[in-house]
Amino acid sequence: MHDNSREILSKVLITGANGVVGSYIDFGIKLDHRSLDITDLNEVLSVVSKHSPKFIVHLAAETDVERCERDPQHAYIVNSIGTYNIALAAKSVGAKMIYISTSAVFDGLDGPYTENDACNPQSYYAKSKFLGELIVQGVLDDYVIGRACWMFGGGSKLDKKFISAIIQKMREPEIKVVKKRFGSPTYAKDLAGAIKKMILNNDREIFHISNEGNPSRVDIAKEIVKITGSATKITEVEPSFFSHVYSDQKENNEGMLSKVKIMRSWQDALKDYIKEEWSDYIMKR
Predict the structure, then answer these.
(1) Which of 97, 106, 104 is nearest to 135 (CA)?
(2) Are 163 and 20 in contact (CB under 8 A)?
(3) Average pLDDT over all residues of the chain
(4) pTM for the whole thing?
(5) What are the record's GO terms for cellular component (predicted)?
């Protein structure tokens, strides 16, 4: 760590700061979509030039997988062209770019994956994010690409993903969970801490930054039952049961292995998350 870490962190610009990961970032110049439209190149160049950061953490993205499938053009405009605009702006002021990508760049047939495994994105969301990775590598020499997986965080207000859905169903006698789907959950609070470390360490290249472990969705649901002391029964169902939901249609493993141990186990992270950010909700049950 640097003695002048506060000064370094003051020169970081963050896009998409109103999202789940951004809500845990306690440093830098935080911009949301109202103060920066990443799809407008002139606006991006102007705003970045005004702040003249040394680092740009690019969090702004369309992460709604179902929406991306319905509207691929929207996915590419936000996740690919938006990333291109940020990369050009980073280049124009000589800033290093930290781009948060996804484990969905892999096809899920042979996980868990290391940073060196070949990408093969399947969904429009995954393709638009992978194109973002290629753009960052093509435009810039100084960058970090951090791939996360199965993000959770933000409590009942911001969390719209799998873990939040399970916690909110804990009052029900039975919850059906798709089987044979594996991943590496990523607590957004831990990811924000990892981003800070990567800036201060001046890391480069591609990193897998998820909490340690490769559980199934069923494992996670059972862990939530254990942590909350719920009497809910978890029932495993085939992927075809959720045939209307694109992201649940196939058996796969998009878990990740990291070349460096960056974050704690998914169980520890999940326990803290529920204790710190869901206890009021659970107490009201």
Answers:
(1) 97
(2) no
(3) 93
(4) 0.94
(5) cytosol
| CA 63-125-115 angle, 5° bins | 95
pLDDT at 262: 78
pLDDT at 272 over 60: yes
State both tokens at 23.
């809500």
Q: Is the peptide bond before 112 cis (omega within 30 degrees of 0)?
A: yes
80/169 Cα distance (integer angstroms): 35
Strand partners, 234: 175
Q: Which residues contact 57 (CB under 8 A, 6 or more apart)?
A: 12, 13, 14, 15, 25, 28, 98, 100, 195, 199
**How far apart (Å, rounded) are the C-alpha atoms in residues 119 and 182?**
17
Strands 233-237 and 174-178: parallel
Does the domain at 5-154+183-215+254-264 match CATH 3.40.190.10? Answer given as no
